[in-house]
Design a protein that fits this description.
Helices cover 48% and strands 11% of the residues.
């Protein structure tokens, strides 16, 4: 069917002709007439079928015909992501080229305060159409920046995605601001039970249009590699080596993997960019602009661009990881073979993902072609469909996210704060090379108990001590080194808090042992640096005690001094 056969406004038809749109897609053919008639509608169709135009064209036509309140918001379109909201706004500007009386504003988060002020100004002046993400719109509603009491059209685009992202309560809250006479239009790529329940709550006697629910386009050539995780990057290198491929999207379920893949591609001198939630809105816009304009050939992304992003000329989609939901798989590969073009989708299936991929094949009701691995990769695993993954998808994402987190932590080469791992090892009794404050502290407290065992501990400390510390100096002034270390330990414990629980527990044990052997030893070890006398004055104080400890201490000290004199 041609657009001119529909009862659309002439201004809208002129814009379509200038954009070289003549033939309707099936979803447009079935959805535009009931919307023009003022009926609620539930549309379910696969991605890339023209759902955006299916609701924008009739709404624009009706608004341009007139009869709606001036200076009021007449249409509200909800989008799950900023990127989709921007895309809808761009499509709106194109279709409304010959309808200057119909204005629109995109409302979404992730930008600066100037953008927020512009949104407030546009809404208060009475933008006819608002395209918004749920969270940002609720912020404006809470502040009283927008009035929806005269709204005529309420559109939910990618409703299933909004429910997956946890926007169910937000949608119902927004719906509470709408008048009962509002015409509601809902579009979804899938039809789970949650969507049916939402439709029952929002729609009034809707017209249902269901076309090819959750099935990928027939022109998509689907293939898969059965491989180990370590072989995936080599396969990507081989794919790009064998052909001059343009317009490629690589999907991964982990932000860390996205960054790693993009870095590997850039080392191969491939023009690539990454898209994930760690980027600012400005960075996202810049990457999408470069990809759409052809400045970069490969976009490595999470599922943030799996839905609703309209890029017609994608030639290849690579699933670096198997989506653990058949619907997500359909959305990913639906980025290619759009607008009646051919496309290719390749999926990497490792040992843990075999069962999930088999479930996708069952959902598709077809077996995906398995490609042989490149010669450089060697042998791959055998494809088995009965073994379930031993780890959950959630745990795999967590492992991917934290795989390199500890490796990037800088090593501490100074006698300052220790990394958590080193402190943990030290608490277990393994002395790190730079962990001297705790060693000295423990040694000082345990000295009255250790007796003759004191000397081996000192010798171990001396072997691991950095060069430049003189033996004679250390022997002559044992407490001069110990006392500042104890002070440093106390300060470090205050800074690290929970990190030093094991350290404090070990110190308490040493203190208890010291108390049982000699009550005076407790007072000596608990002394703070401010209360402690000069190191030279501590020796006579120790001699006054009748416990015999001083004699035990003097023997190894005299032996050490004698060694120094002989040298």
């Amino acid at each position: 069917m041609k657009f001119e056969e529909l009862d659309l406004n002439d201004n809208v038809l002129d814009a379509l002709y200038d954009m070289h749109f003549e033939e309707c897609t099936p979803v447009q053919e079935h959805c535009i007439p009931p919307i023009l008639e003022g009926k609620d509608l539930l549309g379910v169709a696969q991605t890339g079928t023209g759902k955006t135009a299916a609701y924008l064209l009739p709404i624009l036509s009706l608004l341009d015909d007139g009869g709606y309140p001036d200076g009021a918001v007449n249409c509200l379109i909800m989008s799950p992501t900023r990127e989709l909201a921007q895309q809808i706004d761009q499509a709106m500007q194109g279709f409304a080229y010959y309808t200057p009386g119909v204005s629109s504003v995109a409302v979404y988060g992730g930008n600066d305060g100037n953008r927020f002020d512009q949104e407030v100004k546009s809404m208060r002046l009475g933008a006819d159409v608002i395209i918004a993400t749920p969270g940002r719109l609720i912020s404006h509603l809470s502040l009283g920046n927008v009035d929806l009491s005269k709204l005529s059209f309420f559109v939910l685009d990618e409703a299933d995605r909004m429910l997956d992202m946890g926007f169910s309560e937000d949608i119902m809250k927004i719906a509470s601001y709408l008048p009962d006479s509002c015409q509601t239009i809902m579009f979804s790529a899938t039809m789970p039970k949650d969507i049916e329940k939402l439709a029952q709550n929002l729609l009034k006697n809707p017209v249902e249009v269901k076309l090819a629910v959750s099935k990928p386009a027939e022109k998509i050539k689907q293939q898969a590699y059965i491989c180990y995780e370590t072989q995936k990057l080599q396969i990507i290198k081989d794919i790009f080596k064998n052909g001059d491929l343009k317009r490629v999207i690589i999907f991964s379920g982990s932000k860390q993997k996205v960054k790693h893949i993009n870095q590997a591609l850039q080392r191969l001198k491939i023009a690539s960019g990454e898209m994930h939630s760690d980027l600012t809105q400005e960075q996202r816009d810049d990457i999408m602009f470069k990809f759409k304009s052809g400045q970069i050939d490969v976009l490595v992304a999470t599922d943030i661009v799996a839905r609703g992003i309209d890029i017609d000329d994608i030639t290849l989609v690579i699933n670096f990881d198997v989506p653990h939901d058949a619907e997500d798989y359909v959305h990913r590969i639906g980025r290619t073979a759009r607008a009646d073009r051919d496309g290719q989708a390749i999926t990497f299936v490792n040992e843990d993902d075999m069962y999930a991929f088999y479930q996708i094949e069952k959902f598709l009701e077809k077996e995906v072609e398995k490609l042989p691995l490149p010669a450089e990769c060697g042998e791959g695993p055998e494809y088995t469909t009965t073994r379930r993954s031993k780890t959950s998808a959630k745990s795999r994402r967590r492992n991917d996210r934290n795989a390199n987190a500890h490796r990037r932590k800088p090593r501490n080469d100074n006698n300052q704060r220790q990394p958590k791992d080193e402190n943990r090892k030290d608490a277990a009794g393994q002395k790190p090379e730079n962990g001297q404050p705790r060693q000295n502290n423990g040694e000082q407290k345990a000295a009255p108990v250790a007796g003759e065992g004191q000397q081996p501990r000192k010798s171990r400390r001396r072997r691991r001590r950095p060069q430049g510390a003189g033996t004679q100096e250390n022997a002559g002034q044992p407490r001069e080194n110990k006392q500042p270390d104890q002070n440093g330990e106390q300060k470090q414990g205050q800074r690290n808090g929970q990190q030093n629980n094991n350290r404090r527990r070990n110190n308490r044990q040493r203190n208890n042992n010291a108390r049982r052997n000699d009550r005076n030893a407790k007072g000596n070890t608990a002394q703070t640096p401010a209360q402690a006398p000069a190191p030279a004055a501590q020796a006579p104080a120790a001699e006054k005690r009748d416990s015999g400890i001083s004699s035990l201490l003097k023997r190894p000290l005299k032996w050490i001094r004698s060694i120094g004199k002989h040298k």
